[in-house]
What we know:
Elements: E1 3-9, H1 25-31, H2 37-40, H3 47-53, H4 59-83, E2 87-93, E3 107-110, E4 114-117, E5 140-143, H5 147-157, E6 163-165, H6 177-185, E7 197-202, H7 230-244, E8 250-256, H8 275-286, H9 290-294, H10 298-304, H11 309-322, E9 327-332, E10 341-346
Parallel strand pairs: 1-8, 2-7, 2-8, 3-6
Antiparallel strand pairs: 1-10, 3-7, 4-5, 9-10
Amino acid sequence: xxxxxxxxxxxxxxxxxxxxxxxxxxxxxxxxxxxxxxxxxxxxxxxxxxxxxxxxxxxxxxxxxxxxxxxxxxxxxxxxxxxxxxxxxxxxxxxxxxxxxxxxxxxxxxxxxxxxxxxxxxxxxxxxxxxxxxxxxxxxxxxxxxxxxxxxxxxxxxxxxxxxxxxxxxxxxxxxxxxxxxxxxxxxxxxxxxxxxxxxxxxxxxxxxxxxxxxxxxxxxxxxxxxxxxxxxxxxxxxxxxxxxxxxxxxxxxxxxxxxxxxxxxxxxxxxxxxxxxxxxxxxxxxxxxxxxxxxxxxxxxxxxxxxxxxxxxxxxxxxxxxxxxxxxxxxxxxxxxxxxxxxxxxx
Length: 348
């Protein structure tokens, strides 16, 4: 029988960048030129938002957020090391990185042999500022576990028609930031990450993935077709557990993503996230009310800017199949830093 550990975390890019850059969603929105004077006036913001932004554009608040999340990642890494998995499976989104107009799969197992990553280099090869001070040519190598192909075959036998790929399409480094940041954050102290991985792409961004080219601003004139439904993502998580249940593997199942994103929340002028909706989803999640999550609609996800919650839907479906409830590691609400960050563990 397989042993299965569950982890949920955020791949928030702001944790890669130095705090001094103040490259926060609210700061970018205020500089965008698309907001009205009333929307830009702090007097019209929620009080918690004014306090968080402060008189230093969120610099002090972000340092506190970083400290909390760093501690959370360390706790998750300690649990992962204690479990000592044969491999880690990551459900993550692709934001117009590897998949573009030529194909947008609902789900895709990245069954490569190996991935070489240069996460601190921009597209032109120039260095990307990062808190670790790593150079642009710093290379990270990750082995893809053969279970990626086994999983694909088993899911197809279960009637789950899933896509798979043996080589990257558009990305030289092979994986989008949802996967790479997850591996970076679980190796925050740079002691190495030697566990093989099984990356599974989820089309979280659906109607926006091509139209927005992975960003917050509209590029195209048309909405794209939607991504998979929350229920279908939960079905994938449950099917994944069934695929591994009778194997000898020790598997860590990881959902990578933040919850409501300000950059996707039109009802708040893309200034702050849907905190109220996140609180409701969090209460359901911590109670293990998986039926409530199965009843969430795509329209609700899109209205709240919770597109990346679809990665968590996969984890929820897996834990529902196993009859597990989570323990919270960290829950960070924010008005300024784009998205709520949730870190949880499901003991093996």
